[in-house]
């Protein structure tokens, strides 16, 4: 069962979210639409974002984990507005994911941990299998007490967590060349893994928490050696975790969407073959096409390792099988 754990949806329409400049959709044709944030065009999308049949024709795998598109998180809005947005998109996602090939993950108002826990519980009761969260809430990273409270709740509810970078820094140096996506996303994801480790989150949340970071964990695998060196040599500055960074590699997973066999080899060598899962970022243009090509063609992978990455690890992440 080949499972893509990193895909997104956009409903074909939704009610007014209730604040000026809230995201909306301009329908340009039967198959195409434009996400607008205020009056600014954010992203062109096609019917494979909302139409299960269109998704099925091009997804290239047996099933997908389908998560929200992060622009709809509304973490920068008052919590009540973020709850409304979450409920709207979560309920619409169940319509998109009525086909058993599509596994819905919800969103929550992460800026308010109590409301986030309530919305997660509502969604799990309605059929969602897990939750996607952004990698920060303003200046609060994943070691924020409220976020940790929510992650502990996810562990208690046996709900897998998918972490996606969002709300990237803007400015003259990163607003050209798609640098927000090419540099900002890997850096943001790396920073969030550091926050989980150095902020002591993995020392505080149960080992049962299943959490995965998008985009191959960003630049984390490449710079683990630098991170490890700093922990040992400047422990007076960054030694806030109980153990060195390498101790926590079995506490989280990453997806495989790194686009290059050499990068995938480093990822598997660093994380282990049981901590990498197939991901594509479907259906967006910067996603991997065809889905899973690098994993399928990687000469260094054994058949067993390839099977784990293509589906076996996802089954464990989703709570369908136990780790061996």
TrEMBL record:
Pathway, per record: Secondary metabolite metabolism; quinolate metabolism
Top class in the EC scheme: lyase
CDD domains, per database record: metallo-dependent_hydrolases
InterPro entries with a match to the protein in the record: ACMSD, Amidohydro-rel, Metal_Hydrolase
Domain Amidohydrolase-related intervals: 4-318
Keywords: Decarboxylase, Lyase, Metal-binding, Zinc
GO molecular function, a single term: aminocarboxymuconate-semialdehyde decarboxylase activity
GO cellular component: cytosol
One annotated GO biological process: secondary metabolic process
Keyword Transmembrane appears in the UniProt entry: no
UniProt-listed Enzyme Commission number(s): 4.1.1.45
Family (UniProt): Belongs to the metallo-dependent hydrolases superfamily. ACMSD family.
Quaternary structure note: Monomer.
Identification of the protein by name: 2-amino-3-carboxymuconate-6-semialdehyde decarboxylase
Highest classification ranks of the organism: Bacteria, Bacillati, Actinomycetota, Actinomycetes, Streptosporangiales
